[in-house]
């Protein structure tokens, strides 16, 4: 998911951490700027506080670079508002699901579903969003859990054209723009299910279609159930394997000692 759904949580993390997430600096600066404005600081105070925050956490701190990034964040927050984003769920309706199912191509269905979820989230964040999604197709594919195919721009454009031809999406006419408008949003028909956990959320669609989808026994993340072995997501499974190996080694070492 390319959008931060709970900005308060991110503010907490950023303030508690002794490090600064440089890779996502734009997002971190945005939420901290909101936080300090909400705290009652003025522009200059926000700027100074952020500069101190970064200097304390970044190894090679170059003041003039960071100040221009901070100023950019402040400008944007002033333009778009200080209200914190907090999306706890997205409702999906029966009509929307039916429209997606009618595509009749598993991968493209998943892509359409991801577009739908993004549009609904962005509509909640910006009241005048009007069903637009400005997310790169490579990030859409990632959320759709599609790892094979669609690597070339031509293939990606083909998928978008199919969805445009079916009337499900409408591409922005602007050149060099990755915006798509989702045209099958429906807030009136019955809600089929709500998404409240956004880890691998595309699986909620496959579960609706009847695929065998379960929850990881450790972290409850959605997973595709392929056998009857115990249910773990990949991360939890790796973690468990490591622990079991450690445990086995301990037992083995203990037995060795007894033998001596
Ligand atoms: Zn797990």
TrEMBL record:
It comes from the Bacteria. It comes from Paenibacillus thailandensis. This is Uncharacterized protein.
């Amino acid at each position: 998911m390319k959008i931060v759904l709970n900005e308060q949580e991110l503010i907490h993390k950023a303030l508690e951490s002794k490090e600064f997430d440089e890779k996502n600096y734009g997002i971190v600066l945005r939420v901290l700027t909101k936080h300090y404005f909400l705290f009652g600081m003025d522009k200059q105070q926000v700027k100074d506080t952020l500069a101190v925050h970064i200097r304390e956490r970044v190894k090679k701190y170059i003041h003039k670079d960071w100040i221009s990034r901070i100023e950019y964040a402040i400008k944007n927050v002033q333009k778009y508002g200080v209200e914190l984003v907090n999306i706890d769920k997205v409702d999906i309706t029966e009509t929307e699901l039916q429209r997606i199912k009618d595509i009749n191509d598993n991968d493209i269905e998943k892509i359409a579903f991801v577009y739908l979820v993004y549009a609904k989230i962005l509509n909640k964040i910006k009241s005048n969003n009007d069903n637009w999604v400005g997310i790169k197709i490579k990030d859409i594919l990632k959320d759709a859990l599609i790892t094979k195919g669609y690597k070339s721009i031509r293939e990606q454009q083909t998928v978008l054209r199919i969805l445009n031809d079916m009337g499900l999406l409408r591409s922005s006419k602007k050149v060099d723009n990755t915006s798509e408008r989702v045209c099958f949003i429906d807030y009136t028909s019955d809600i089929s299910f709500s998404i409240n956990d956004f880890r691998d959320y595309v699986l909620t669609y496959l579960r609706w279609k009847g695929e065998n989808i379960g929850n990881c026994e450790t972290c409850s993340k959605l997973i595709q159930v392929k056998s009857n072995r115990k249910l773990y997501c990949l991360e939890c499974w790796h973690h468990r394997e490591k622990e079991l190996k450690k445990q086995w080694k301990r037992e083995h070492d203990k037995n060795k000692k007894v033998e001596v």
